[in-house]
Every structure is written in C-alpha cells, then in structure tokens.
Inverse folding.
C-alpha cells in the first residue's frame, strides 16, 4: 500500500462525502477535499511520501473498499455531507456525517464496515462556475 493512499484514509476527516455505493462486497466513497484559497497542489502518483489531502482545493477522490463485511448504514440520504467523525481500527471504519438536504429534513448518516483492502483514485479538480 502506498503512503499516499494511507494519508488520504488518515485524513478522511478533512474530506467531505459526495456519495457512496455498496454492491457485492465493494463499497465506493466519493469524497472531496478543500482547503484555504491560494494553496498549491502538486500531484505525483509515484511519490511514496505524498499526502493526498495536503493542499486540496476542490479535488475529487474515489475510495474503493473491497471485501466489505458487516456493512451498515443508518440515516437518510441527503444532498451533501460534512464529516463529523472518522474512527479507524484494524480494517474497520465508522464514519459519521452531518447531512444537509435542499428539499427535505437534514439527516446525519453513519456508515460502519470492515474491509480487506482499499484503493484511492484521484478524479481531478472540481471546476467551479465562472463568476
């Protein structure tokens, strides 16, 4: 496992959940990381000590967990989520998000699962609308 992958997982609390999907023991989380305006980001996938969440400014990542067991999801789906809690222990994650909904009631969501392995894919910078 690359250090860069571990860094993203360790810094998951600094990223916001966009969506998740679970099917056939595979869980995909799409997350976005932001930080202070004006900070630079430099992506070098071959660097072992690169911190994926360092310098993020609207950058999208997909985390794919395989061999997922004991998956549970509590709460209702919302339009976007802010990370409240990330608890990690020996191939087990518990993630709690504050959900915000545009058309209905807000609802926190809790994801809990064990996994065999995971990978991280950088999806690119998010391009905001022109002002």
């Amino acid at each position: 496992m690359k250090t860069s992958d571990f860094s993203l997982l360790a810094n998951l609390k600094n990223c916001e959940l966009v969506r998740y999907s679970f099917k056939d023991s595979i869980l995909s989380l799409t997350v976005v990381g932001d930080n202070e305006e004006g900070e630079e980001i430099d992506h070098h996938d071959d660097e072992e000590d690169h911190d994926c969440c360092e310098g993020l400014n609207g950058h999208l990542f997909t985390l794919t967990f395989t061999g997922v067991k004991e998956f549970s999801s509590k709460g209702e789906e919302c339009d976007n989520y802010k990370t409240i809690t990330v608890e990690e222990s020996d191939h087990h994650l518990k993630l709690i998000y504050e959900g915000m909904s545009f058309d209905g009631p807000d609802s926190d969501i809790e994801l809990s699962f064990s996994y065999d392995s995971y990978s991280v894919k950088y999806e690119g910078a998010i391009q905001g609308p022109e002002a």
Notes: The longest strand covers residues 80-89. The chain has one helix and eight strands.
